Queue: 2 jobs
Job 1
Amino acid sequence: MIVPRFGDPAEARGAFVTFEGGEGAGKSTQIARLAATLRARSGRGVCVTREPGGSPRAEEIRTALLDGVAKPYGPFAEALLFSAARIDHLDRLIRPALRRGETVLCDRFVDSTRAYQGAAGGLDPAVVAALERVVVGPTRPDLTLILDLAPEAGLARAAARGAGQGAGQGAGQGADRFEAESLDFHTRLREAFLAIARAEPERCAVIDAGRDPDSVEAAIRETVAARLPDLLPGEGSRGDAA
Ligand code: Z5A
């Protein structure tokens, strides 16, 4: 049984892994690959989810947030809406899955609030931390994989994907509320994620996401095997591969 190092052992029996990083870093791509590997290898249920969203009510809030409905009210109001979505997501999906012993793979979580609304958006870190404390409580990630990529490259990937899919808002297509921010904003985001990794090295691992998808996948597998060996039995522990 996995004993989470950062979560509440009494509450969480599964493993909670979050993916973070800037736009187009490859989180969705790599979550799908890791989920397939874990389903084949770990013998546990795997729950793939995302933020904002992951539960029907949180997905409604996601649509409003990515359409920019809350932007005129400022980063504090946006952080409150991300938090409202997170409360429902934790109660309805994440905590029940962890109690069933599943591995939860979540595309973005609290570090995105710290980076987007906090470091890049200008919201006081003390306010972000207070929100995090009351909203998340003991349900902390066991491992956070930070996919690091130059913002120019990530935005180009996201734009190329958007061009292929056509316009659309709220559903992750087209330039949404955050993709439309300046390059300077995205540069601050990257620095914020790297600073989080430096501050919490036991929870976080930085993955070089500038390589081809197979190389990124191999680095992630190696890191998961090293940090949470119960999830990939027999894979060996050669240390982080970032
Ligand atoms: N947000 C916030 O502000 N505060 C919060 O608390 C939370 C979130 C939780 C969610 O939007 C937005 O909400 C997000 C932060 C904010 N900002 N934005 N925008 P989203 O979920 O729609 O966006 P995203 O999280 O940035 O996801 P994304 O743009 O879909 O990126 P991704 O999942 O990291 O990448 P991907 O979809 O896997 O790949 C993007 C494209 O690149 C795609 O065409 C791939 O085929 C391609 N790709 C993937 N990997 C590679 C490699 N290795 N090489 C080349 N090409 C690749």
Job 2
Amino acid sequence: MTRVCLGIESTAHTFGVGLIDEKGNVLFDEKSFYQPPLGQGMLPRKVFEYHAENAASLIKKAFETSKIDIIAFSQGPGLPNCLSLGATIARYLSLKHNLPLVGVNHPIAHIEIAKLMTGAKDPVILYCSGGNTQIIALTGNRYRIFGETLDIPIGNAFDVLARSLGLEMPGGPKIEKLAENGNWIDLPYVVKGMDFSFSGIVTECQKLYKKGFKKEDIAYSFQETCFSMLIEATERALAHTEKEEVLVTGGVAANQRLKNMLEVMCKDRGAKVFSVPMKYAGDNGVMIGWTGLIMYKSGVRTKLEESFILKDWRVDEVDVKWT
Ligand code: AMP
Ligand code: MG
């Protein structure tokens, strides 16, 4: 009998509920997405209240869709109050229905769903989302971090810049669109070893906008500069690990320009690029369900007393038993 895992995602703006079976068939995939009012960022209390209102109806629908054998949830990293909501619901469901519980590391879920959906086997991973930006590769039994942002994540940089330009959240797609009609302006380029930094570039863009530079030119130059930095570090990780695949995942993986730039770099190196399908690029419950399922099959169980949230949980703290 094929087992089905329920995945609950609630690290930040998205409360996602997914059902997936052992063969990778997605049986249910719904989410509610918190969008702050124009000009504002995400206030954790507001996000929590929004998720708390929507959670029950999504969970109910999932239970009406299929039998469920395993409960998986995002255990971290993320906004503590949002994480706690998901974890509490997961614990409750596990107790009520007497089902095993699996706490999932959110970045690993982005990686595992992308591997499932693309068929990538052993890639260097460019994980670029609203809350994280890291270059990761599996060596031994750990997803190791080869490079990462020293300050804000790339998706957050897009969102902060977009807000300064008077655009709605999420800012990434709007900046990408504006960039189509932009011209080059010199911006700071900040790669330090394998790490990179975006906040100074955002500040510079904000200054230029106040001085009267065009939104389109700022968007174009910001995108080109930040992506060049990410690609430089990814290329070094490829050279170092001697892997032959690059996988791009996380919400910013929806950006076509990033994918094109990666293609060019990988073609030069004889490596293959895989990018997560748009539908699974942003946070979703299915990725938590899939990761929970493969973890469960490798023997991982999360005891109730170990199921509390890990708000700063890093990807390299997880013992990878399932590959
Ligand atoms: P995640 O945190 O993985 O759910 O991804 C959300 C982030 O992805 C937000 O910061 C968005 O602004 C960003 N994003 C979504 N689409 C795009 C895009 N086309 N270009 C750049 N960033 C994007
Ligand atoms: Mg995410």
